[in-house]
Specification:
This protein is mainly α. It is built from 16 helices and five strands.
Length: 359
């Protein structure tokens, strides 16, 4: 095209359409050089020697938004002489998986029995989130830019961690299955322990991602338990799927996590694991297709806007905004930007009754 070759200049109307498509200010297109991609920290999705992940303007916009919120929260904390979160950046990958898993459980005061006693995966996640936020970490559920039209696939990102010593952030893509949220949160917690800021996806090839997966897996499903499956190599795929489903359901964890642990303990082959992963992916895509259809047609039921918003933001973020407003440290307009809502929605959002576990 003439535009791509630099032979023609785009008209203002074309630039306006480009600004909307790429979610950038119109002024950006008048710069002499392209703007830098949003600071993602390390991109843990990239395998050494592999093809870089495809650029996503939605993801880049979301990360800029997350960075802005985190910077604002840190600024609020600096008004009160905060103490650093003691575990950020205190570990390396030289620490054994079992050792770091034990350190994390002790610091979080996390009880696996209590986690499994919860009625379902949503309540189990609420319990774990409560333990994580009690240490000073902010946990948000964000998978789009405010509407289902901008949903970001878990293939693009599953989690994001900002290893800031005073305001560490964990963001979980809530487009993922709810059963996977707890594992993702622990995966990102490991990144905080390592002091690594960056973005994670479904990749299991990068060394640091394997390490984070292994530590998170050891916390939620110790290797000793997975050996109770026995020899599954002769099992049919349907039998294996049924067994994995029962095993995962009784422990409030995802089937994908169980399958991955089976692979990592050599209980199933790589070929079998990929077959299971493909089946799980097909099932999840069908579920997401139905959910998106309900969102588009307006037939989806569920809790109110404020209940959903509070759940996505978490108690920790809501609490600091509530305190900052009452002390006059932040304006309602700025609070709205941090919370990702309109200014008129701030008061009913932060003063509503929160349910247990930030749900």
């Amino acid at each position: 095209m003439a535009l791509e070759a630099g032979e023609e200049q785009p008209s203002r109307s074309v630039l306006l359409r480009m600004a909307k498509a790429y979610r950038r200010a119109l002024l950006v297109f008048y710069l002499a050089q392209p703007p830098r991609i949003g600071d993602r920290g390390e991109d843990f999705r990239t395998v050494p020697g592999g093809t870089p992940p495809e650029y996503s303007p939605l993801l880049d916009t979301l990360i800029r938004d997350i960075r802005g919120r985190q910077t604002a929260v840190r600024g609020l904390m600096e008004e009160t002489d905060p103490q650093p979160v003691d575990f950020v950046g205190t570990a390396t990958m030289n620490v054994s998986v079992g050792n770091l898993a034990s350190r994390i459980k002790e610091r979080l005061q996390f009880s696996l029995d209590e986690f499994r006693r919860q009625a379902d995966v949503q309540r189990a996640f609420g319990y774990l989130r409560e333990r994580v936020e009690a240490t000073g970490v902010y946990v948000l559920l964000l998978g789009n830019l405010g509407s289902h039209h901008t949903n970001i696939s878990v293939d693009a990102f599953r989690g994001f961690a900002i290893a800031d010593p005073f305001a560490p952030f964990i963001v979980i893509n809530d487009q993922d299955a709810q059963a996977a949220w707890s594992f993702t949160m622990l995966h990102e917690i490991v990144h905080l322990w390592l002091g690594t800021t960056g973005i994670s996806s479904t990749s299991t090839e990068a060394g640091i991602e394997k390490y984070c997966n292994d530590v998170a897996g050891e916390i939620l499903l110790p290797a000793a338990e997975i050996r109770g499956f026995g020899d599954l190599r002769p099992a049919t795929l349907d039998d294996l799927m049924e067994g994995i489903s029962r095993f995962a359901s009784s422990r409030n964890i995802s089937r994908a996590m169980v399958a991955y642990k089976l692979l990592r303990t050599d209980t199933i082959t790589d070929t079998t694991w990929r077959q299971v992963a493909d089946r799980l992916r097909e099932e999840w895509l069908e579920i997401r297709r139905r959910q998106e259809q309900e969102e588009t047609t307006g037939t989806a039921g569920g809790p109110s806007y404020y209940v959903v918003k509070r759940h996505r933001l978490g108690n920790a973020l809501l609490d600091i905004i509530r305190r900052s407003l009452s002390e006059g440290i932040i304006t309602p307009t700025k609070a709205a930007q941090v919370l990702g809502v309109k200014a008129r929605n701030v008061d009913p959002l932060i003063h509503g009754t929160l349910t247990e576990g930030g749900r």
